Amino acid sequence: MAFIEVNGKKYPSPGLYPNMVVTTAVNAGRNANNKIVGQKIGRDNYKIDNLFWPVLKAGTWSDLLKEFDRFFVSIRFFDMVANDWRVLTMYPGDRTADVYLTNKNGKPLIYTNCKVNVIDTGW
Question: What pTM was estimated for this model as a whole?
Answer without folding.
Answer: 0.82
